[in-house]
Request: fold
Amino acid sequence: MNYLIRNAVAIHAEDNPTARDIRIRGGLITELGRGLAPTAEQPETIVDASGCVIWPGLVNTHHHLAQSIMKGVHAGLNQGLGEWLSSVPYRFWPKVTPELMYHAAQLGLYELIRSGATTCADHHYLYHATTSPELEEAVWQAADELGIRLVLCRGSATETGSHEGMIEHRIEPETIDQVIDRLDATRKKHHQEGAGAMKKLVVAPTSLIHSSTPDGLRAQAQWAREHGLKMHSHLLEVAYDEVQAREKYHQGAIDYADACDWLGPDVWYAHLVHSDPHAIERLAATGTGIAHCPTSNCRLGSGIAPVVAMEKAGVPISLAVDGSASAESGSMLQELNLAWLIHRAAHGPDVTTLEQVLDWGTRGGADLLGLQETGSLAVGKQADLVLYDIDQPRFAGVHSPLMAPLMCGEPVHVKHSFVQGRCVMEDGLITGLDERELTRKVQEGVARMLADA
Reply:
């Protein structure tokens, strides 16, 4: 379907800052301007953007959709990462059925879309020796039905190692052959090439330090690069990563990653909170990126990732919500708002700008995921864009309307959202999703999971 979006308050289009209208044809932005008129040669749906600001769709580079059904678990509320992993995700995930995974993915994607996201990189790690492939298929299905771009970061563990959650709950890891075989099956079924793909696969062992072997990591890196796939994992979320790397491998975590072929422009890590100057230098020198997760890092008491120093050094920066078991809002807009504020609190009022943070949450994420045809609003780009309705009392006094959603934070009202030119949210409702039914299904599923656990 073709669209003409008209009369926006402002549009975040760097090459055309005075534009107020956007024309979409064939999934692409074909025109930006003011006073664009409907064309006779091709029918198009007119969308009234009065009272709205238009941004590129937000790009979430690290999530755990399965955790959408594990919010606020009492046992983990005041625990740090190690204990929390055992009390929350690793306690429950062996009990997650494909049906519950589907509803969890729907819920997590719903929260992302309603906050302005159009792309989700889900670090899906619900794999063990006897995992049903239906668990993974449930994630692909939910994303396809809701119309959001999905980058599935396929987690894995090939040993229990020092992973406290796996040890306590006696989870049997996969073999490296199982990991590669299952990755290849997913690649052939779902992965799409190109910078405008709707579905991508990423090789993503759940932990480099705690549940993988050096040989297994090298094998996955080699396989990923042979097939042109990107690579992702957790690293240096807590200081324990560095301690374990030195105890087990007699080198720091970042050097261990390097020794296992896990640094490079095709790699990004979640968190990197405990990166020292040496780690930042190696990340920058190799083009390795970060998925900065400020809400989760605050919630678990992990610290603040040094992304200001990273950006100055040349490290690619993106933003992410992490799992909803440790960042209960599931909102990308909250991550932008907190990223803008938290580094100012630590380093002063001039270290982060609104434009800089919005770039982290859009172009930065798109580039990191290999989706360069998205992440900004320009003629020829894919039409991933969001209309935030700021014609509301809480925004009425804002003097800089384009940045009002970021400055004011949640709650926001996304009036319309487009992914590859398809309207996935219309008048505040996600197309094809019954919110009441989703709420009921999730509540019923959580009750059954609690009974089983």
Observations:
- The chain is about 35% helix and 20% strand.
